[in-house]
Amino acid sequence: MAMDAHEIEKLIREGIPDAQVTIRDLAGDGDHYAAEVVAESFRGKSRVQQHQMVYDALKGHMGGVLHALALQTSVPK
Q1: Which residues contact 1 (CB under 8 A, 6 or more apart)?
Q2: Angle 8-49-12 from CA coordinates, rounded to 5°
Q3: What does the pLDDT average to over 66-71?
Q4: 3-class DSSP state of 75
Q5: CATH ID of 5-74, from 2.60.40.1120, 3.10.20.740, 1.20.140.10, 3.30.300.90
Q6: What's the confidence (pLDDT) of residue 22?
Q7: Which residues have a Cβ under 8 Å from the Cβ of 13 and sit 6 or more positions away?
Q8: What is the chain's mean pLDDT, rounded?
């Protein structure tokens, strides 16, 4: 069963409360998404650490109901 874009956004916002999240369904199949996550809490962290924060927020859904996520993270400008 595919994961809904709103659910992905909700999980990320719950895990990273200061995040601005944009989700796009890349293939229209509910399995392949792109996420842009901008958060002040990323400041001073490496890209790997930022991505790990997002994966932690997704609570183990990556690779399961969430098949593919192209992830872009940054701090606010």
Answers
A1: 65
A2: 15
A3: 81
A4: coil
A5: 3.30.300.90
A6: 97
A7: 19, 21
A8: 90
